[in-house]
Design brief:
- The structure is a single chain.
- The protein is an alpha/beta fold.
- It folds into 4 domains: about 10-110, GTPase HflX, N-terminal domain (Rossmann fold); about 115-180, no CATH class; about 195-365, P-loop containing nucleotide triphosphate hydrolases (Rossmann fold, 3-Layer(aba) Sandwich), CATH 3.40.50.300; about 370-425, Alpha-Beta Plaits, CATH 3.30.70.
- It has helices spanning about 25-35, 60-70, 85-95, 100-115, 115-130, 160-195, 210-220, 260-265, 265-275, 290-305, 355-365, 380-390, 410-415, 425; strands at about 10-15, 40-45, 75-80, 100, 200-205, 235-240, 245-250, 280-285, 310-315, 325-330, 340-345, 370-375, 390-400, 400-410.
- The chain has a 7-stranded mixed beta sheet with strand order 6-7-5-8-9-11-10, sandwiched between helices. A 4-stranded parallel beta sheet has the order 2-1-3-4, with helices on both faces.
- Strand 8 (about 280-285), helix 10 and strand 9 (about 310-315) form a beta-alpha-beta unit.
- Helix 4 (about 100-115) packs antiparallel against helix 5.
- The longest helix is centred in the middle third of the chain and has 36 residues, at about 160-195.
- The N and C termini lie far apart (about 65 Å).
Length: about 425
């Protein structure tokens, strides 16, 4: 074997691809490597028509990687693809350097970023599950199972079996501790439910600016940086919006091909998104691949059971787009994902936060209109609908019909005003709604 480098910071990147190589995939892989603290010595792309079962890439490309690693002094090989335990060991043996696949790289970043007690437990659990498939045979001088001469009998099991047993025991301990953490989080969420405050979760692709927006809206000091997975631990704060208060939660960022073990281990963090009433889907407006990022986040949301929750797309970082202005693109009623309601803001500069708050308050039904409605007998159906919505505060009856004192969320009032009997409601709406 070879002596593993203790530093492992000078990395050679291998980008396998099975067809046309997308430039943003390579760029994201480089960002992941730098986020882990590696300096990139070189990047090699490897087209794969038929994956090699023992090394993933072919022998010719392996020679090229070995030569490049020797020339650049790289002491670490990062592969942007999931490797089987056998492939990882075979690559290490041939290249004589430590090899880490995409899952291992993301796990390393998570291990660096976790700050809270439960976040560290979640990372350790994911690491152990990943490691359990990569234990290799060791301590062969102790492996005699039974029998033999005096002094040569082994401990009754191989060191590999001992390692697996100890690892499994630790996994079970972590699972029990995380179950307790989940119970505590559930109790906290129930307390928020009893407060009857709407719950809003920030979700989005990693490095879209969620934590910066969270800090801008709440005045908190959650860690925010221009790097992938800057935030792992969920942070929850109460904020005031036009018309009322809501609970806002910042969550871990998503990324393409997020390893399933990580999704499972971070169920506590992701449950903030799954159990929210409303999602603010944060998008990097300056990212040329933003529509693909939106689709990738939607895919993860669907995987954790949050795909059907109402969303508002928040296009952040307009400060990076020349001439971009704050604006609000309303929902036109067409059931098309590309036509979802959007708000364009800059969390860093604070531009558009008032627009976002007004839009969110409206979507959550926090903004109300109050007034008096005179309904003739011919509008009995409208009266029944108002009672069904529980917006009638007082009612009197006379020979002309009904006189109602109502308090209606603006969003509901607009829907009623657009209906067949909406003329009576139209008078309640302000002449000028909040500026977008």
């Amino acid at each position: 074997m070879f002596d593993r480098s203790k530093k492992g910071e000078n990395a050679l990147l291998i980008q396998p691809h099975f067809g046309k190589l997308e430039e943003d995939v390579l760029e994201e892989f480089g960002d992941l490597a730098r986020s882990a603290g590696a300096s990139i010595a070189a990047t090699i792309t490897a087209r794969i028509d038929r994956p090699n079962p023992s090394t993933l890439i072919g022998s010719g490309k392996l020679d090229e990687v070995k030569a490049a690693a020797d020339a650049t002094g790289a002491d670490l090989i990062l592969v942007n693809h999931a490797l089987s335990p056998g492939q990882e060991r075979n690559l290490e043996k041939f290249l004589e350097r430590r090899v880490i696949d995409r899952t291992g790289l993301i796990l390393d970043i998570f291990a660096q970023r976790a700050r809270s007690h439960d976040g560290k437990l979640q990372v350790e659990l994911a690491q152990l599950r990943h490691m359990s498939t990569r234990l290799i045979r060791g301590w062969t001088h102790l492996e005699r199972q039974r029998g033999g001469s005096i002094g040569l009998r082994g401990p009754g099991e191989t060191q590999l079996e001992t390692d697996r047993r100890l690892l499994q025991k630790r996994v079970e301990q972590l699972q029990k501790r995380l179950e307790k953490v989940e119970v505590q989080r559930t109790q906290m969420r129930r307390a928020r439910l009893r407060s009857e405050l709407p719950r809003v979760a920030l979700v989005g692709y990693t490095n879209a600016g969620k934590s910066t927006l969270f800090n801008s809206l709440t005045g908190a000091e959650a860690y925010a940086a221009d790097q992938l997975f800057a935030t792992l631990d969920p942070t929850v704060r109460r904020i005031a919006l036009p018309g009322g208060n809501v609970v806002l939660a910042d969550t871990v960022g998503f990324v393409r091909d997020l390893p399933h073990d990580l999704v499972a281990a971070f169920r506590s963090t992701l449950s903030e998104a799954r159990e929210a009433d409303f999602l603010l889907h944060i998008v990097d407006a300056a990212d040329p691949h933003r529509e693909e990022r939106i689709a990738q986040v939607d895919e993860v949301l669907a995987a954790i059971g949050a795909g059907d929750l109402p969303q508002l797309l928040v296009f952040n970082k307009i400060d990076r787009i020349e001439g971009a202005e704050v604006r609000h693109d309303g929902h036109d009623g067409v059931p098309d994902e590309s036509r979802r309601e959007r708000v364009w803001i800059s969390a860093r500069d604070g531009r558009g936060l008032d627009v976002l708050e007004a839009t969110l308050g409206k979507r959550l039904g926090l903004q109300h209109v109050t007034g008096e409605l005179r309904l003739p007998p011919s509008l009995g159906r409208l009266r029944a609908r108002l009672h069904q919505l529980e917006v009638v505060r007082a009612e009197t009856v006379d020979e002309e019909g009904w006189l109602l004192q109502v308090e209606i969320p603006i969003a509901e009032a607009e829907k009623l005003a657009a209906g067949e009997d909406g003329a009576a409601i139209q008078a309640l709406l302000p002449e000028k709604l909040p500026e977008w």
